[in-house]
Amino acid sequence: MNKTSKLHMTTKEFREAGYKVIDWIADYYDQIEDYPVFPKVKPGDVRSSLPTQPPVSSRKYDEILKDMDILMPGITHWQSPNFHAFFPCATSGPAILGDLISTGLGVNGMNWVTSPSTTELESHVLDWLVDMLELPKKFKTSSTGGGVLQDTASSSSLVALIAAREKASNGEINDSGYNQKLTVYTSSQAHSSIEKAVKIAGIGKNNLRLVDVDESFAMDPNHLKELILSDIEQGLQPAYVCATVGTTSSTAIDPVDKIGPICKEFGIWLHVDAAMAGPAALCPEYRFINNGVEFADSYTFNPHKWMLTSFDCSVFYISKRESLVDALSIMPEYLKNTATESQQVFDFRDWGIPLGRRFRALKLWQVINYYGIEGLQEYIKGNMINTERVKSWIEKNSNFEIVAPVPLTLICFRHKKGDDFNQKLLRRMNDSGKMYMTHTILKGQYVIRFSIGTATTNLDHLKSTWNCIEKYASELENN
Ligand code: PLP
Prior knowledge:
alpha/beta
């Protein structure tokens, strides 16, 4: 982009088109409730509406923007007030604008020297967040640790596993390949990203142990210890435990305060995956979710889920940053520079998998500045209060039951008429276009997940969603 180019968009054209794009996004949010939350397209519908050939000559930006009309019928409206599927991916004005500026700057923060503010803002904001969430001080850069942004919690847990693998094998696996002796532990309710990390890191799925859970779907520490002892007896080497604070199926909270001492006793890396639940700790009254986190070697949560920061943005903390750098550092000639040699800077290429890195910290920084701690707390508390209300409506209808504890903002409920009925009910709910929810299986039963947290949702939306569910259920009952 420059002032006079014939080939590129000029700054004047960019300004004009940019205003239109911002208007387009604002209009979208004004009208978001008019769209069916879950799109009514069949596989292939979207592609068949697209031009078969790319344009040979340049098109006007207005026409390109108009092409959004082709795509909108196939968009799932994650920011709709009636989106209650999976976990939220809550965004906000400052996050969208921060991301826009980041893209506008077009920097690549692979090393400190490639854009010093990119690295330093990231360290600074992540140090702020340690205080905001009252996490252990060892995660701060002023201590032995530090924070870094990854794209997703899947990457954070993988990076933690690679660091744990190298620590357990004294760097042997990086040097010589697999040793097939390391074992990994997580609960049967942990996110699938842990199994994926085990595969990618070359630990091998057969060396992943799934620990039993208790009645509340939280990891049973006694079973964890039994599995560890049995593996040691067989000459294996326990290397990594992943505890989940807020499981995907039901937001169960593993007892990290009991798991931590076991990891310490056997010298095993403890990683805590709080992908969704982490931001609850912004409010002092919900900091119980982090009981025992002082034992953790690494910790992750996603501001892109429940902290109003557009996808993608996953915070990753490590208590000893040298373990991460030892595991992932590379130094080809073309990346050498005096700042790195001075050892006074962090080069985040050594703190994750990719070399190139977006300026994600900017949107996070803008979100924290725009809302302030109080605004973020209000958002979290508001979600908790709304969840309590929805829970009370479900409890009032004796045809339904809530099948798991509700520590945060996810309600797992089902109609008492059984699995087939619940599957039909969920299909009816999603086909209506008025809401989108997903399901899980808990104790062998089909369960509907009502997940709350999108920034556009208020109590009226929730009430009319619940009224619809009751109506659809009684229609199905009478059929
Ligand atoms: N961990 C937990 C507990 C999750 O619930 C999820 C996603 O919902 C993930 C990890 C994966 O998150 P991401 O999409 O950021 O990799």
